[in-house]
TrEMBL record:
<dbReference type="InterPro" id="IPR001199">
    <property type="entry name" value="Cyt_B5-like_heme/steroid-bd"/>
</dbReference>
<dbReference type="InterPro" id="IPR006091">
    <property type="entry name" value="Acyl-CoA_Oxase/DH_mid-dom"/>
</dbReference>
<dbReference type="InterPro" id="IPR036250">
    <property type="entry name" value="AcylCo_DH-like_C"/>
</dbReference>
<dbReference type="Pfam" id="PF00173">
    <property type="entry name" value="Cyt-b5"/>
</dbReference>
<dbReference type="InterPro" id="IPR009100">
    <property type="entry name" value="AcylCoA_DH/oxidase_NM_dom_sf"/>
</dbReference>
<dbReference type="GO" id="GO:0033539">
    <property type="term" value="P:fatty acid beta-oxidation using acyl-CoA dehydrogenase"/>
</dbReference>
<dbReference type="InterPro" id="IPR050741">
    <property type="entry name" value="Acyl-CoA_dehydrogenase"/>
</dbReference>
<comment type="similarity">
    <text>Belongs to the acyl-CoA dehydrogenase family.</text>
</comment>
<dbReference type="GO" id="GO:0005737">
    <property type="term" value="C:cytoplasm"/>
</dbReference>
<dbReference type="InterPro" id="IPR037069">
    <property type="entry name" value="AcylCoA_DH/ox_N_sf"/>
</dbReference>
<dbReference type="Pfam" id="PF02770">
    <property type="entry name" value="Acyl-CoA_dh_M"/>
</dbReference>
<keyword id="KW-0560">Oxidoreductase</keyword>
<feature type="domain" description="Cytochrome b5 heme-binding">
    <location>
        <begin position="4"/>
        <end position="83"/>
    </location>
</feature>
<dbReference type="InterPro" id="IPR036400">
    <property type="entry name" value="Cyt_B5-like_heme/steroid_sf"/>
</dbReference>
<keyword id="KW-0274">FAD</keyword>
<dbReference type="InterPro" id="IPR046373">
    <property type="entry name" value="Acyl-CoA_Oxase/DH_mid-dom_sf"/>
</dbReference>
<dbReference type="GO" id="GO:0050660">
    <property type="term" value="F:flavin adenine dinucleotide binding"/>
</dbReference>
């Protein structure tokens, strides 16, 4: 329990030297006498006459994130509270919304309205944010750092709450399931709930872990759900959605990225099935997956998608990318792997249809997450520029800084409004209509969101200066964001490819009789 002894300013002032050193931060008094020599910022800054025995709140928040004081080893240095002073720093409770302007999309900001979200979206959002902050976030920060895959207890908890099943979007697979203790009925769950999930999950600000946490399921399982033989579909879906087994989508190769038609991994038809030989690269979750939804080229030159189980001839090794190995990004080699006939997804030589069928949903989900992460950076920058003082004034008092913040806010607001519009269309269109009408919209929206995300990352680094390129301390999320933001711009289709796709889709629909 925090110490409550009342300490006057006079008493505080008496403890102002090495060996007997107290400071007050936000109305709490800390005895730093023994800690001072171990202080990561050095002893000299603490024995400074403006700090030792004084209220050092401003100096503290210029240099540390609040979380420092929450670490048990530092929290226990508190010996009392400053007499007559009131704590001013209010921390958000888990699940609560931030009151920092633009830190939330308007539908969540107090006093604003939205045509899209209903009361059950709000309830779901509150429960989901709490879940993310209490269950996922601590593991996310630790695993992003040590590079291990997300801990099994997080998957187990997600399975228990049926969150893994929600990652497949709305649909029959949710029938009869109790979602997060009943906070939303399966038949009510729609694409706005999914949008909430993507944006809330992005708040962990651990990009590798974010993909580690079922990124493979999100893109690897839908082809099984939609195209597998019933007995395979039931078995694999049950295993994956209960967090017992893992699956990934193995399409990209060293030879072919966005150019799916250029795949070389070869499936040879044999008695009772197929023999697969080839490689796959940059496959999210590959290092810990049990199943691989794999695109292969057939003898006839067509494409086939096979569900390959980890076993003889299958090897995975981690690829070190600029985000954490927590994502399980891997290189896969298939060496004459036997795949039984009933593991075919869809039809022979019609694999492209299987692969393409999920692209829109994948890209839309990535865009939603990317915008959520971008918004967190806006909040970080707003907090930093108002609390950080340079030349005696807060950073935000510089016009050039305000101009950067203005651009950041405009970008994230426009991207959010766009994704909400697309989501509304998805809610009101059949899958076929979505494929026909939204492929271009989603491609453009993703291209725009990730382009603006990179601009915001660059601006944020300028605002944070050296801290924006330092992995710990005040700017740690900025450093992380700036380093990992290109993933959103590459995975699921590079920006240029998506832009081109969107224009080609538009051209297909140009009326033949349109003239200036
Ligand atoms: C309860 C009191 C304090 C604790 C527990 C504490 C703890 C820490 C920790 C853990 C760091 C490492 C950086 C981080 O993780 O954010 C740090 C850095 C630092 N601290 Fe403190 N600190 C305290 C008070 C102060 C005060 C009053 C000053 C006043 C000037 C100060 C000045 C610094 C400086 C200059 C750094 C280096 C910052 C940087 O590298 O950007 N600290 N402190």
């Amino acid at each position: 329990m925090a110490a409550t002894k009342q300490i006057s300013l006079e008493e505080l002032a008496k403890h102002n030297k090495q060996g007997d050193l107290w400071v007050a931060v936000d109305a709490k008094v800390y005895d730093l006498s023994r800690f001072a020599a171990m202080h990561p910022g050095g002893l000299s800054v603490l024995v400074d006459e403006d700090v030792a025995g004084k209220d050092a709140t401003e100096a503290f928040y210029s240099l540390h994130r609040h979380e420092v004081l929450q670490r048990p080893q530092y929290a226990r240095l508190q010996i009392g509270v400053l007499e007559g002073a009131r704590a001013k720093i209010a921390l958000r409770e888990p699940g609560a919304v931030s009151l920092v302007p633009y830190a939330e999309p308007t539908w969540l900001a107090p006093g604003y309205h939205s045509p899209y979200y209903k009361d059950y979206h709000r309830k779901f959002q509150t429960a989901f944010r709490k879940f993310i902050e209490e269950v996922v976030l601590p593991d996310a920060q630790a695993r992003e750092e040590d590079g291990k895959r997300p801990s099994q207890h997080v998957f187990d908890e997600m399975a228990k709450q049926n969150i893994l099943a929600l990652r497949m979007g709305p649909g029959k697979h949710l029938q009869g399931k109790v979602i997060m203790g009943g906070v939303v009925k399966p038949e009510e769950f729609d694409h706005f709930h999914e949008l909430i999930m993507a944006q809330e999950s992005a708040r962990i600000q651990a990009r590798g872990y974010y993909d580690g946490l079922g990124g493979g399921t999100y893109i690897g399982l839908p082809p099984v759900v939609n195209f597998a033989k019933p007995h395979i579909r039931e078995k694999v879906t049950a295993e994956v959605l209960t967090g017992k087994k893992f699956i990934c989508l193995a399409i990209t190769e060293a030879f072919a990225g966005s150019d799916v038609a250029g795949l070389r991994c070869h499936a040879k038809k044999v008695q009772g099935g197929w023999r697969v030989t080839g490689t796959k690269k940059w496959i999210t979750n590959a290092t810990f997956s049990d199943y691989f939804t794999t695109g292969c080229r057939t003898d006839k030159g067509g494409l086939v998608v096979l569900l390959i189980e980890r076993g003889e001839g299958v090897e995975t090794k981690p690829i070190k990318t600029s985000y954490s190995t927590s994502a399980g990004t891997g290189y896969i080699t298939f060496d004459n792997v036997f795949v039984p006939e009933d593991h075919l997804l869809g039809e022979e030589n019609k694999g492209l249809q299987v692969i393409l069928s999920n692209f829109n949903h994948e890209r839309w989900g990535m865009t939603a997450g990317s915008i959520g992460a971008q918004r967190c950076i806006v909040e970080e920058c707003l907090k930093w520029t108002t609390q950080r003082k340079v030349f005696g004034k807060p950073l935000i008092s510089q016009a050039v800084v305000r101009a950067k913040i203005a651009a950041m806010i405009a970008r994230v607001e426009s991207a959010q409004n766009w994704i909400e519009n697309v989501t509304y269309q998805m809610n009101n269109m059949s899958y076929r209509e979505q494929a026909d009408k939204l492929a271009g919209q989603i491609a453009f929206c993703k291209m725009y969101a990730t382009r603006t995300a990179q601009e915001t990352a660059t601006d944020a680094v300028q605002i944070f200066g050296g801290r924006g390129i330092t992995k710990t301390g005040m700017g740690k999320f900025i450093e992380h964001y700036h380093r990992t933001v290109p993933f959103d711009a590459i995975l699921g289709g590079a920006e240029d490819v998506l832009g081109d796709l969107g224009v080609r889709q538009a051209l297909r629909k140009m009326p033949k009789d349109a003239r200036l």
